[in-house]
Amino acid sequence: MRLGIIGVGHLASALVKGVLRTGFLTAENIVLAPRGHSAQLRAQFGCTIAEDNAGLVNACDTVLLAVRPQDAVAAVSGLPWRSDQIVLSACAGVSIADLAPYVQAAQVVRIMPTIAAQFGESATLVYPALPQLAPLLAALGKSYELKSEDHFEVGSVSAAIFGWAQALIGASSDWSSDKGMDRAQARALIAQTFISAGTMVAKTDEPVSQLLDSLATPGGITEAGLKHLENTAAIEAWNGAADAALGKLEKRR
């Protein structure tokens, strides 16, 4: 595989680091568009920079599109696409049908990774899944094949939740340090607490409600906090945030 990247921002940089970390691709097999963080990635890893997007498409069999959603169609228009190519679109809310007329016979696949790909820890959505993409996706973390684009859109909200979870970690660690705990220790503790909570849900088949029942003993601290969240409609607000994110994705289609 020779991977080209159009839209070399923070997400694309994280994907490059993840792929190189595993050794799945060498830097010589990663071709970057001549903008964004391309110069930094070439200086750090030795990636190739194309003269322009047309040269990049000519040189690669797989092209990652990671531009802003509103720029996606313009970014792929007028380029020398071939039938043996795959366009990997990481543009939130941009459908396959939006891009297909502009990439000729190239196949469009939607993915939604996170910047945790740089550590091989991204939860990456994919639709449709192609066997030849499995090694690339594995270099980023764990991939999840969705059954339809509608399901992909719902799943894409997880990329927003990724950010919200970090906001909760930040707020919780700030609360701990404001109470006198060492700031670095508080950050590490709260981050690991979220990792541990996710591990419990991911590695057991027990319903989450039952997991909570076993934790929220009557009169305990977990119950006290959950009651406060319920009384202040915090869970409803969280679901409302998810609805808002999904609504924004659906408006782009």
Description of the molecule:
It is a single chain. This protein is of the alpha/beta class and 253 residues long. It folds into 2 domains: 3-145, NAD(P)-binding Rossmann-like Domain (Rossmann fold); 154-251, ProC C-terminal domain-like fold (Orthogonal Bundle). 52% of the residues lie in helices and 13% in strands. The protein has an 8-stranded mixed sheet with strand order 3-2-1-4-5-6-7-8, sandwiched between helices. The model has no long low-confidence stretch (mean pLDDT 96).
Q: How do the strands and helices of this protein lay out in sequence?
A:
Elements: E1 3-6, H1 10-22, E2 30-32, H2 38-45, E3 48-49, H3 53-59, E4 62-65, H4 72-76, E5 86-89, H5 96-99, E6 107-112, E7 122-127, H6 134-140, E8 141-145, H7 149-178, H8 183-202, H9 208-215, H10 221-231, H11 234-251
Parallel strand pairs: 1-2, 1-4, 2-3, 4-5, 5-6, 7-8
Antiparallel strand pairs: 6-7
